[in-house]
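Lab meeting, item 3. Inverse folding demo.
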């Protein structure tokens, strides 16, 4: 379980650019949560705080009953590395490497067998040895999800993963994210894309913090 309690975050040298104000949300295993809201409402910021990539200015982040902000940054990093898979906005794959090589880069001491198994999980086992530049946009996003899954995380945070994909590819990515939640993970996706609605279990709508 991951809980954000009254978290706020501002950017800028003296915190003059509010990005997220007094926001609370509970993410539980088995949930696929859609974070929606207008551009600039703080979706990526909230995602970054939940995924332990960003520190909030105030409020609490509670990860499996433990206040994370009370921990030092090395403990937070350790928790993130162990428990959180992150699927970034653009897939950030190495185009000249194969799908399995890209997945293997996610972890130290990873094996081809584990990488192929993660690719199987996203329906791409047969593409494991293809260079990612030869895959479609939707397939590349699924490789990116396999990379996030390689460490068997309890939670997956995805930022705007499918907005640019056609209906078929977007649907396959959303269906996959839902299946990961149905497996018992926490899945959180920030998105402008209303096609996600049919696949999520709940929605948090953000309003602009300014
Ligand atoms: N690194 C940063 N430095 C300064 N301001 C930032 C930074 N990151 C985000 N912001 C500002 O914080 C606010 C929230 O940004 P954020 O990216 O979280 O919103 P978003 O809802 O994800 O937006 P979008 O839908 O356009 O991706 C915006 O006003 C943005 O300009």
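The presenter then showed the designed sequence:
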């Amino acid at each position: 379980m991951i809980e954000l309690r009254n978290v706020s975050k501002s950017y800028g040298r003296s915190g003059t650019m509010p990005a997220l104000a007094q926001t609370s949300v509970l993410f539980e295993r088995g949930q696929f949560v859609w974070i929606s809201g207008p551009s600039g409402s703080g979706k990526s910021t909230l995602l970054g705080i939940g995924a332990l990539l960003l520190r909030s200015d105030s409020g609490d982040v509670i990860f499996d009953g433990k206040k994370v902000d009370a921990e030092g940054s090395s403990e937070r990093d350790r928790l993130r590395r162990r428990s959180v898979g992150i699927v970034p906005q653009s897939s950030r794959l190495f185009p000249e490497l194969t799908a399995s090589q890209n997945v293997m880069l996610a972890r130290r001491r990873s094996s081809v067998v584990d990488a192929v198994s993660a690719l199987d999980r996203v329906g791409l086992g047969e593409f494991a040895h293809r260079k990612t530049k030869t895959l479609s946009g939707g397939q590349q996003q699924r490789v990116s999800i396999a990379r996030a899954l390689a460490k068997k995380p309890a939670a997956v945070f995805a930022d705007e993963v499918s907005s640019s994909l056609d209906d078929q590819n977007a649907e396959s990515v959303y269906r996959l994210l839902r299946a990961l939640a149905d497996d018992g993970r926490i899945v959180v996706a920030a998105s402008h894309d209303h096609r996600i609605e049919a696949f999520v279990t709940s929605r948090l709508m953000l309003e602009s913090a300014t």
